[in-house]
Design brief:
- The chain has a single domain, classed as Four Helix Bundle (Hemerythrin (Met), subunit A), CATH 1.20.120.450.
- The protein has six helices and two strands; from the N terminus they run ααααββαα.
- The relative contact order is 0.19.
Length: about 180
């Protein structure tokens, strides 16, 4: 595990800390890259590092703001082409998708703070991949997002290593050294 999450005071804080740690893995995977590198496809996959960051932001925003909080969609997803969600498209930058991920994280923390507890349950939207009349609690949604972000942070680690040989532990060590300076 590239980083350890601090012991937290309660379940809500712990889940948010684990979610933030997985976002951190994504941020570290693109550390020091140019837009061109973040858009590259150095592996057999069509996923690009910048696209993974973008997708992670869109996914979290959708689950928290749209599904859990019932707020209107942001329209962040620019294409119905699912593969485009995992790529940096013309006009998108690594700095832009990183800023979006950061803002989504702040909005998630604020939204979860508004809830009376994590047992709040919401109906899932109609989609072929959701059970008919399905409901999920805020707790389940946070756990799902931790899973989702962790999966993509792992993808990002492999793509980054394929791109320039950098590995998660080295990127974490660099980040920690800079924080201490």
């Amino acid at each position: 595990m590239p980083s350890l999450v601090n012991a937290e005071t309660d379940e809500r804080d712990a889940l948010l800390a684990f979610l933030d740690a997985q976002r951190g893995g994504l941020r570290r995977a693109v550390r020091g890259l140019t837009d061109q590198q973040a858009a590259a496809h150095p592996s057999a996959s069509t996923m690009a590092l910048g696209g993974l960051v973008k997708h992670a932001a869109h996914c979290e925003q959708g689950w928290i703001q749209e599904i859990l909080m019932g707020r209107p969609g942001s329209g962040a997803r620019q294409s119905d082409d699912w593969a485009a969600e995992f790529q940096l498209l013309p006009g998108e930058t690594l700095a832009g998708v990183l800023a979006e991920l950061e803002e989504v994280g702040r909005a998630t923390r604020a939204a979860i703070a508004e809830l009376p507890d994590l047992d709040v349950a919401v109906a899932l939207p109609e989609a072929p991949w959701f059970p008919k009349d399905g409901k999920r609690s805020a707790r389940w949604i946070l756990l799902h997002l931790i899973e989702e972000q962790a999966r993509h942070a792992g993808h990002a680690d492999i793509i980054r290593e394929s791109l320039d040989g950098a590995v998660a532990f080295d990127l974490l060590a660099q980040e920690q050294r800079e924080q201490q300076e």
